[in-house]
Amino acid sequence: ELMTGYTMLRNGGVGNGGQPWVLRWSSRIRLTWLSFTLFIILVFFPLIAHYYLTTIDDAEDAGKRIFGPRTGNELCEVKHVQDLCRIRESVSEELLQLEAKRQELNSEIAKLNLKIEACKKSIENAKQDLLQLKNVISQTEHSYKELMAQNQPKLSLPIRLLPDKDDATFPLPKSNRNCRLHNCFDYSRCPLTSGFPVYVYNSDDYPFGSSLDPLIKQAFEATVRTNVYVTENANIACVYIILVGEMQEPVMPKPTELEQQLHSLPYWRTDGHNHLIINLSRKSETQNFIYNISTGRAMIAQSTFYDVQYRPGFDIVVSPLVHAMSEPNFLEIPPQVPVKRKYLFSFQGEKIESLRSSLQEVRSFEEEIEGNAPADYDDRIITTLKAVQDSKLDFVLVEFTCKNQPKASLPTEWALCGERDDRLELLKLSTFALIITPGDTRLVISAGCAMRLFEALEVGAIPVVLGEQVQLPYNDVIRWNEAALIIPKPRITEVHFLLRSISDNDLLAMRRQGRFLWETYFSTSDNVFSTVLAIIRTRIQIPAAPIREETAVEIPHRSGKAAGTDPNMADNGDLDLGPVETEPPYASPKYLRNFTLTAMDIYRNWNSAPGPFHLFPYTPFDPVLPSEAKFLGSGTGFRPIGGGAGGSGKEFQAALGGNVPREQFTVVMLTYEREEVLMNSLERLNGLPYLNKVVVVWNSPKLPSEDLLWPDIGVPIMVRKT
Ligand SMILES: *[C@@H]1O[C@H](CO)[C@@H](O)[C@H](O)[C@H]1NC(C)=O
Ligand SMILES: *[C@@H]1O[C@H](CO)[C@@H](O)[C@H](O)[C@H]1NC(C)=O
Ligand SMILES: *[C@@H]1O[C@H](CO)[C@@H](O)[C@H](O)[C@H]1NC(C)=O
Fold first, then answer.
1. Among 155, 418, 534, 691, whose CB has the most other CB atoms within 10 angstroms?
2. Which ligand lies nearest to the CA atom of residue 157 in the structure?
3. Distance 286 CA to ligand 1 centre (A)
4. For the chain, what are the domain ranges?
C-alpha cells in the first residue's frame, strides 16, 4: 500500500514534469529496487523486532531488564537491538545530564529570588531615608522661612544704666508717712538687668553698733558674707542696708543719737532713699524704738509696726530671728501626721494692760482717735474660750495667766509665757495654736504675735490668728490663708465650730504649707536675710540670680550591645510617631522666664517649692500650651500639623508640631538595682523619634555591675548617681 501510494505520487509528479522516455524507464527500475529494499526494511525488520519484543514481554521481569541497569545483555545479541540499546543508553545519559542542569538552574533561581528580596528591602530603606531627608529639607525650609519672616534681631539685653552721681532732683513726698516705692524709691539705681547689687554697711563702723545684740550681729554678718547679691562697690548698689537692732536694753542710744548717726551714713544722700533699716528681734521684748526716729525715705524692716508707721508695699514685716547663730534641729520637728493632736487648740498668755488703760497712758497715739475707743474683745474672748474648755466637748488648753513671770510686752499685747522649749512642747500637742492680736488695733503687728506664729509653724500647729487687721510678714506675696486661719475677733463665739468643721485633708494641707513657709523663709538667719532681699527684689521686679550649676557624678558604663527595634514600635503602622532625629541633639532654650517669675508668677513662685530665691533654667511647673497650638500654631516658630488641618500618623510625621518650635525630649529614669529590667526598658527606646538623650538616675549605693553591657540606642545614655 505504501509503495503504491509512493509510485502514484511519483507518476503524477513525472507526468506533470514531461521528461524524456529513456530517463523515465531507468528511473522506474531504480525506484522498484528502492521500493523493494524499503519494503524489506520497513516490514521485515519490524516483524523480527516484534517477534523478539513479544518474547521479552513473555519473559518475566522483562520491563526491568530493558529499562533498568544494563543487565539484559542477552537481549543485545541481535545487532540492531544492540544499536537500540546504545541509543537508549545515550538518551538516558543525556537525561541524567539534563536533570543535573535543571537542578543547577533551580538553585540559581532561588539565589536570584533572594537577591530580589534584598533589593526590595534596600528600596524600602532608601524610601525611608528619602522620607527623612524630605522631612529635614522641609524643616530647614520652614526655619528659613521663619527667619525671613521674623527679620528682626533676637531680643537683647538693654544697656546697663548707671545712676547719676547726684540724684538730688528727686522730688520729696509731703511726708515720709506717704512714702511708697513710686515716690520714695530711685528705680534708676536698679535696672532690670543689674542683678540687684546690695551694699551692706558694717554696723561696727558706727557708734550704735556697739549696742547691737551680739548674736544678731554675728548671725547677720555671717549671712551677709555668703549672700550672692551683696557687693563691696557702694557706687553701683541698688539698695543699702543697715542693721540697727535689736539692741541690748541697758546700752541703747537715745533716739536722737541714732537718728543723727543714720543721717550721717556715707550714702544716705540727704533722705536715705534706697536704704533699708533692718531691725531683727530675737527676744520677744518689744518697744518701737524707730517710731520716734525720722528715717527719711528709707524702708524699715522689723517685727513691730503701728498702722500710722507702717507703709504697705514699702516697709517690711520681718520674722523674728529666733535661731540666730544655731540651725534649727530639723530632726526634732514632729511629723505631719497624725493630723489631729491631743488638744484641738491651745493658748497661753497674759495681758499686762487692758486697752482702756493703755489708751489713757500712751497719749501720743491718740492724736487721730476721735469718738469712742475701739471695742476691747479680750473679755469676750476669755469667757468664750473658757466655756469651750469647761464644756469638755473637745480637749483644749487655754491659760490667761502665766505660771511664771510673763515675758515683757507692749501694752494690750498678750505676753508669752514660759520658756521657748515649754511653749514648743505644748504646741506639739496642739492641732491649732490660737494667736490673739493686741487689743490696740493700731498695732498692726507685734513681735510677740510674730513669735507665736513662727513657733506654731515650726512644730506644725496650725495658727489661728484672731484679729484680721494683722499684717502678717510678707503678706503682699505670701498667701497666708493657705497656712493659717485669720478670723475677726467678733467671730470668737464661732471659732470652736469653725475649727471643728475643717477636714483632715485640709488640715494637713495647711500644716504642710505652714511647714514650707517656715522652712523656706523663717527658719535660719540665711533664710530671713534672703527673704528680706527677695521681697524688695520682687517688688522692683528684678529676677533672682541664676541657680548655681551642680555637676552630677556620672557613672561610667560600657555600651555596645546592639538594640533591636521594639516590635510594638515597629509595628504601629499608621501611628508612626515621627522621624528619628537626624540632626545632632540640641539643648532646649534656657531661661525663658527670667522676668515672668517676678511679674505674673509672683504668687506661685513665693507659695510653692522651690521658692523665689533662685532663677532656674526651667522648671517642671512652667505652663505649657494647650494641644490646639499643635494644630493652629501660635505665631512664627510653630508648625501647625497638616497646615492647621490636624491629622495623625503621616501628618505628624511630616510636621514638627507642638508646644515649642523645635522639640526634642529627654527621658529620665529612676532606677534601683534591677539591671535586667532597666536594660530592657532602655532597649525599648531604640529608634524613638525626637529623643535627645536618656538620663538614668542610679538610686542605689551599689554601683551597676562592671560587666553590664548597655544597649546602644543611637542617643547618649547618661548614668547619674544620686
Ligand atoms: C527693734 O525691734 C524690736 C522688736 O520689734 C524693738 O523692741 C526694738 O526697740 C527695735 N529696735 C530699734 C533700734 O528700733
Ligand atoms: C516717742 O517719743 C515720745 C516723746 O519723746 C514718747 O512719749 C513715746 O513714748 C515715744 N514712742 C515710742 C514708741 O517710743
Ligand atoms: C535670663 O537669665 C539668664 C541667667 O542669668 C541669662 O543667661 C539670660 O540671658 C537671661 N535671659 C534674658 C532674656 O534676660
1. 534
2. 3
3. 6
4. 2-53, 176-317, 340-521
